[in-house]
Design goal:
Helix content: 25-40%
Structural class: alpha+beta
Shape: rod-shaped
Number of strands: 30
Radius of gyration: 61 Å
Number of helices: 9
Distance between the termini: 209 Å
Number of domains: 5
Length: 489
């Protein structure tokens, strides 16, 4: 039986007799004789063949190259220099005739990028597309370890499940590890070491942006210029006040002393410095720095409603005002309790001791003496606390209702008696004046007449008309007086 087979240039043929491969056919026209003869035509255009085990022995060595792809690997196949396919694990023939097929076997755990043309040939679930911007870098994690630094652009990576992935750096800085430091080029980042007890303020393009805690840090030099300045967190930090907000608040102590105040700085409970009004920043790396602020202006305490019994058993209620100022802040701080509470209690006790030892009349009549005595007592006590008592005043002395009525009656009687004395004195003076007037009028008739005329003139100014009635004797006497010639001495 004659079988004619035509093999084109892009093909090859496998001759089988009774199903058994026996011959390799090159391109051309072939006449085959015999029973049970068949020809299988193989296309060379794909560049590879996977199912070839049954005729592997008759394939010429110069026609194909054998390729094995292990498990967890893939083969990137190029035909005549162009990406053609990604081959799964298995065995393949790569054609070396008509076309030039080449393959690169890579592990799916490989950290290198997959060429984009081959990534497009893979299933979507086999490739992870990563985009890294110009201001960042990608940190490729494999098996829990940093294995690669990804630069700007698109990256096609094998997606091999959990435990592997990509992290992104910050634009300005990151914590440094030995793996990261080994991968970062000197042109892209510098390493900064912040010692214990220090902090660093970093700037981005010259603008202070934050702080760095003790440790190793990478300062990225990508799209921004990042720099840092170290500060020791011990004692006063000499940094401009505009930068204070960037220091870690848990590692610094900011002290603002208002006008008319002072502050005591304590480190480990010990006073190390006295601060005048102003603003200060202190390092507190050991968490043991604190400050106490004191108002040095004069202050006052009001002690109200104190019920006290005088020596003569009169119950009074008094209100006291104590004026004071701080003289020695160190002594005040050394006190075991609040100086205001101590001064309040001491003023109560001084008032009770003094008022209970005097009579109510002496207290009411000698409040200035009582004030001076109490001021002297409390000043000595307050001096030991670092305080100066400027003044003490008995603002109010309040008597009980019944005692107040008695005192009012006494005062009323005293005032009434004083009024009577004044009335009698005035009456006596008036009587004495009348007696003197009468004596003068009796001795001087002309003066008497003038007083009469003055009285008449006063009446005339108030009345419309005045009628004067005189006796004939008085009239003759008046006429005689008026007709007498004037005499000259």
């Amino acid at each position: 039986m004659l079988t004619v087979s035509i093999i084109r240039p892009n093909e090859r043929g496998i001759v089988s007799r009774h199903g058994q491969p026996v011959r390799w056919l090159e391109p051309g026209r072939h006449r085959l004789w015999g029973w049970g003869v068949s020809v299988e035509v193989l296309s060379l255009e794909d560049g590879f063949l996977s199912d070839f085990a049954r005729f592997e022995s008759i394939v010429p060595d110069d026609a194909a190259q054998r390729l094995s792809v292990p498990a967890d690997h893939r083969a990137l196949l190029s035909v005549d220099g162009l990406p053609r396919a990604v081959l799964e694990p298995g065995h393949y023939l790569l054609w070396r005739t008509f076309v030039r097929a080449e393959a690169t076997v890579v592990s799916v755990y490989d950290t290198a990028d997959i060429p984009p043309a081959f990534a497009a040939l893979l299933p979507e679930d086999a490739v992870r597309l990563i985009h890294v911007g110009s201001a960042r870098r990608g940190l490729m994690i494999h098996g829990g370890r940093l294995v690669r630094l990804l630069g700007p652009g698109h990256h096609h990576l094998w997606d091999i499940g959990p435990g592997n992935g990509v992290l992104y750096t910050n634009p300005t800085h990151d914590d440094a590890t030995q793996e990261l430091e080994a991968l970062v080029p000197a042109t892209e980042g510098t390493t900064l070491v912040v010692p214990e007890g220090h902090t660093a303020l970093y700037t981005v393009d010259g603008v202070t942006s934050g702080h760095l805690l003790p440790g190793r840090h990478i300062l990225w030099q990508l799209t921004h210029a990042v720099d840092a300045t170290l500060f020791e967190l011990a004692g006063e930090i000499t940094a401009p006040e505009r930068l204070w907000e960037h220091f870690p608040p848990e590692l610094v102590e900011e002290v603002r002393v208002p006008p008319h105040h002072i502050a005591l700085l304590l480190v480990g409970g010990e006073i190390v410095r006295e601060l005048v009004p102003g603003n200060y920043l202190f390092g507190d790396a050991d968490q043991n720095t604190e400050s106490q602020i004191f108002d040095m202006r004069e202050g006052s305490l009001s002690i109200t409603g104190q019920e006290i019994v005088t020596r003569d058993k009169v119950s009074l209620r008094v209100n006291i005002i104590v004026s004071y100022r701080i003289r020695d802040a160190r002594r005040v701080l050394a006190g075991s309790r609040s100086y205001a509470q101590a001064l309040y209690a001491e003023a109560q006790m001084v008032a009770r001791r003094h008022i209970s030892g005097v009579k109510v009349d002496d207290l009411l009549g000698g409040r200035e003496a009582a004030r001076e005595a109490m001021l002297s007592d409390i000043s000595k006590r307050a001096e030991g606390w670092g305080l100066e008592v400027v003044g003490l005043d008995l603002k109010d002395v309040i008597l009980p209702g019944d005692m107040k009525a008695v005192f009012n009656q006494v005062i009323e009687a005293e005032k009434r008696a004083a009024a009577n004395v004044i009335t009698r004195r005035e009456e006596t003076a008036a009587t004495r004046a009348l007696a003197n007037t009468a004596k003068m009028l009796d001795n001087n008739p002309t003066l008497m007449r003038l007083k009469e005329l003055e009285s008449l003139r006063g009446l005339a100014s108030e009345l419309g008309s005045v009628t004067v009635v005189v006796s004939p004797e008085q009239l003759r006497e008046q006429l005689t007086l008026s007709s007498m010639p004037a005499t000259r001495d």
